[in-house]
Amino acid sequence: MRAFKIIGVLLLGACTPVATTAPDTGAGQAALTAPAMSTAMDLEAASRGRAIALLGCASCHAIDPAGDSPRAIAPPFREIVQRRGSDDLARAFEQGLVTTHPAMPPYVFRANEIHDLTAYLDTLRAAGGGTSKP
Fold this sequence. Notes:
The protein is 54% helix and 0% strand. The chain is mainly alpha-helical. It has one domain: Cytochrome Bc1 Complex, Chain D, domain 2 (Orthogonal Bundle). α2 packs across α5 (111-128), α3 (77-83) packs across α5 (111-128) and α4 (86-95) packs antiparallel against α5. This is C-type cytochrome. Residues 44-125 form the Cytochrome c domain. Residues 1-21 form the signal peptide.
């Protein structure tokens, strides 16, 4: 019975938002809250996702908010994210990205790579000013 009480207290404590303060650099930095830390983590994920896209996709696709794809037949990522939502793309990545175009090789991504890549694609969607699709 005591073990259940301890677990309950730990679970309740885990749900309580905690504000942390960044080291003071003399510039009057604001306190970081859980949502701010989540945003920083999302930015890190997007940065890793861009690196994945740069290594695996940029030889054919334009992966940035501007510019032409090196292969004319390969749509720029900024156009793909306007047509397909994050959840749809994540499902495609989970199943092994296969297209009907014979020149595109099949890709299989790990869960963390899917998260990072979709985080990066979400930044392109936001930069394009289009509607965010789930």
